[in-house]
Every structure is written in C-alpha cells, then in structure tokens.
Specification:
Length: 493
C-alpha cells in the first residue's frame, strides 16, 4: 500500500514539474504579468517613449487621431465618410468609433455618428447621429483630448461652415455612465474669426495618473463691431462648469489690432479667391516672444506651385497646398505632406500687419502620435512687402525644342518635357518662374517628382538667342549656385 501511495505521489510531483517547465518555457508567466500591467496601465494617460518628448506631451494634452477611414459597420446609402476616430471603450476590450459623414446631395450640416459594440448581439451597432454646425468637408478635423483633466477624453470636431466661420463641437461621456448613448454635447461654437483650445502645462502627478489636471479653457476671437479698425478683436473665454457639465462664457475682453491703412486691409480680407494667397507668397521668419526674428525657423508659401515649405530644427518639410478658404482675418489652408501622405496639416493664418501674420497649426497625422504644435505663433515677412508683385511675369509653360549636351529637349504646353539622347528618352514635368527678377526653370523627373532631392532648379541666362542653364539652390540667402557645368540650350529651327 505504501509503495502505491509513494508511486502516486511521485507521478503527481513529476507532472507538476513538467507543467512548471512548460509554463516557464512558453513565456505564459510573462503574458500573465503583462495582463496585470495592462490592466494597471489602462488607468494612466499615454506618455511618449522618448524622454525628450515629455514636455511636448504636457503641452498637447495627449491628442490622438484615428488611423483610417474604415468603419466598423457600413454607413447608410448616400452617406460619405469624411473622418473616423477610433477610441478604446471604458472596459478596454473593444473600440468605439466616431464617424463624421455627409449625406449625398446635401450641402447643409455635416453629421457625426457613434458606433459601439453591443454585447447582446455581439456586433457593432449605430448608437446615435447628431448634426454639427460645420458644413465644409475639406476643413474637418476630428480628435480626442482630455479637456477637463479627468482622463475622460472629449471628442472634438473642428471645421468651417458655409459662411466661412470657424466652428467647434465637443462631446463628452457623462461621468459614471458607461453606455455610448451617454455622450452629450458640452460645447458648440461658431465665429467669424478663430477658436482655440487654451492648453496649459499639467502637473507631473497628472501625467503619472495620480491626480486630476487643470481644465482647458476655450477662446474665440471675433471682430469688434464697435471699432472702425477691422483688426480690432473681441476675445471670449469659455470655461467648463462642473455643475452644468457645459462650457460657459466667463470673460470678454477687447484686443486692439494694428493700425493699418483700412482700404488696403479691406482688399486683403475681401474674401476674393487668390488675393490673400498672393499676399503671403513669400518667405516668412518666426518671431520670438521677445519680438526678434528667428532665422532658424521659417515658412515659404508658394501658391503658384501649390506648395508650403516648413523649415525648422535643421529639417525641411514640403507640403502640398490642397485647398484654401478665406476667413474673416486671413486664410485657412489644408495641406498634405509630400513624403507622408497620411500627414495632413491645417493652417489658420491671420493678418497682424502688412509684414506680419499669425499661424495656428493643427496636425491630423492619421497615426497614434502626439500632435506637434511648434509652428504656432507670429511670422514676419523676410523682405519688405511688395504690393505690386502679385504674379510672375513669366509664362510658366512653352512649346519649344532645344538641342543641348543632354540631348534634344522638348517642352509642351501641358508642363511636360522629354529629353531624347540617342534613343534613351527621359520624361518629367517643368515650370518657368522667377524670384526677385531672376528667371528660373524647375525640372522634376518622372517617377520621383514628389521628392525634394529630385527638384532640379536652374538659373536661366539668355545669350544671343540661346539659354544658358546653371544649376542652383533656393534658400534663405536667395539663389545659390551649385557650381556645376552650365548647359546651353540651342533652339531647334
């Protein structure tokens, strides 16, 4: 009997040992510990991995955007998706989804709908639909942000309406209510000016999930109707009222604008397409808080080529100028990064004086990363404003053929060129333009025209009916020669 008992005990010990070895070898213990860590981390705010980004995280309040335009369930017939925001629900096992859409043939309000997982049907369903006061799809930006400081992220939708007024609509889940239907509208503003969230630096205790953070106020800036100066503004500050669970106006103040010749000001802010675009067609340097110019950070607006160049921290970013909308004080631009197509940048430009503008930049990166707001601020024109220079005197395209050391070059009126060298044909696009009176040619080879290194720019000199091309670079110091051998273009008769 004792032998059987001992044998059974030995077998049990052996099996337990085998199970422990499998448990340790497969890493199940790590998954178990990670599960406990995940449950703990869900109660914390997400922080950047890089310690150098910690300060940026404090400033942004942790803004994150949805990744794509795929919806959990199909929308109705005739409903076109404009923006999508995915958000983990309060239980942490499924995603909620907010979808901004427009109905076919409807030029009225843009709608937002909420999609949530239903445990009873084990599928996603549409919870509610709400119209917003925005109506221009190209201006829409949708994101979530902890505005109140309690880690109950609000859903923020910004845009513009048919009157070119800025709009902002904010939704928030009612405290203590896990149901998706408990989302309620806590603010909706529209103004012929601008609307901004006044972010403040929150404490380390907030970043670590220990305490609440300070609520962010919302500020709107509109025209002062009692003033004859167009640039005089009225600032309205809205703060969150915990009793009413709404944003309410708490302060109104007047902000004097620059004294500028009003006739010229009315021309620039008339809303006529192209007027303000031509005005900002120049190089602009950042202005420090002390009022000095920072030549290490600048912007270059090029409406002719529909490009915007951002330069700062020794890096250059080129954005495609997709669309622009006149506003009460300037221009609202939607742009797209040429290298990263998912990176959109919304630029709200306000006129401060004839040589100074103010920018508010909102990045919709379509990725789960913190937004970068370092481009916000004032910028001063690099040179003296030249109101007469509204357009280039050059014809951008031509229809001509030239012989050169490259081979025979053919330009057509569609902005395309071909270079034929002993049967080897290269193609691309081109444009003639000028900078400060100098005639220039830009050539972009086919297949790489969106890359900055493939933008070949040449200074043109006309000598005895021929064109001499010298490779140059455009920078803050103007036109700089690259010291390459010049190329002579001889017209083909």
């Amino acid at each position: 009997m004792k032998k059987k008992t001992f044998l059974g005990f030995y077998i049990v010990i052996t099996l337990l040992s085998v199970l422990v070895i499998i448990f340790l070898a497969t890493g199940t213990w790590q998954q178990f510990l990670n599960q406990e860590e995940d449950e703990e981390i869900r109660t914390r705010i997400i922080t950047p991995r890089d310690a150098n980004l910690y300060a940026a995280a404090e400033q942004t309040g942790q803004i994150f955007w949805g990744e794509n335009l795929n919806t959990m369930i199909p929308l109705g017939e005739g409903e076109s998706v404009i923006a999508v925001l995915n958000k983990e629900n309060e239980l942490g096992f499924a995603e909620e989804q907010f979808v901004v859409y427009r109905r076919a043939g409807d030029t009225g309000p843009i709608y937002i709908t909420f999609l949530s997982y239903d445990n009873n049907t084990r599928s996603y369903r549409r919870i509610w639909d709400v119209p917003t006061i925005a109506s221009r799809p190209e201006t829409i930006s949708l994101f979530s942000q902890d505005l109140i400081g309690d880690r109950n992220n609000c859903i923020v939708l910004t845009g513009m309406n048919a009157e070119n007024e800025h709009t902002m609509t904010i939704f928030r889940r009612a405290p203590g209510q896990p149901s998706g239907s408990a989302y309620r509208k806590i603010a909706e503003l529209q103004i012929a000016g601008s609307i901004v969230i006044q972010e403040t630096v929150r404490s380390l205790a907030y970043q670590q999930g220990i305490t609440r953070g300070q609520s962010f106020n919302i500020a709107s800036y509109g025209h002062d109707p009692s003033s004859a100066n167009i640039l005089d503004q009225i600032e309205r500050i809205y703060a969150f009222n915990s009793a009413s669970q709404q944003y309410e106006q708490i302060r109104v103040s007047r902000i004097p604008g620059s004294q500028i010749e009003q006739r010229r000001l009315r021309e620039l802010l008339s809303g006529v397409p192209g007027v303000f675009e031509n005005f900002i067609n120049d190089l602009w340097y950042a202005v420090t808080p002390q009022g000095t110019i920072d030549t290490r950070q600048f912007l270059y607006f090029d409406p002719a080529r529909r490009e915007i160049i951002f330069f700062g921290d020794s890096s250059q970013q080129i954005f495609r100028w997709q669309s622009s909308t006149p506003t009460r004080y300037g221009l609202f631009i939607r742009s797209q990064n040429m290298a990263i197509s998912t990176l959109l940048r919304f630029i709200d430009i306000e006129l401060e004086s004839l040589d100074r503008i103010k920018l508010r930049v909102n990045e919709d990166v379509q990725l789960r990363i913190a937004a970068n707001t370092t481009w916000d601020g004032s910028y001063r024109r690099a040179g003296a404003p030249n109101m007469a220079r509204q357009s280039s005197p050059l014809i951008p395209f031509t229809d001509a053929q030239y012989d050169s050391s490259w081979g025979r070059i053919s330009f057509n009126n569609a902005g395309e060129y071909t270079i034929n060298s002993s049967g080897n044909v290269r193609r691309g696009r081109y444009v003639f333009f000028n900078v400060n009176g100098s005639e220039l040619l830009e050539m972009r080879p086919e297949g790489g025209d969106t890359l900055p290194e493939n933008r070949m720019i040449y200074l043109i000199e006309n000598v005895a009916g021929m064109k001499i091309l010298s490779r140059v670079r455009l920078g803050t110091s103007g036109i700089q020669s690259l010291m390459e051998p010049p190329v002579t273009l001889t017209p083909v008769e």
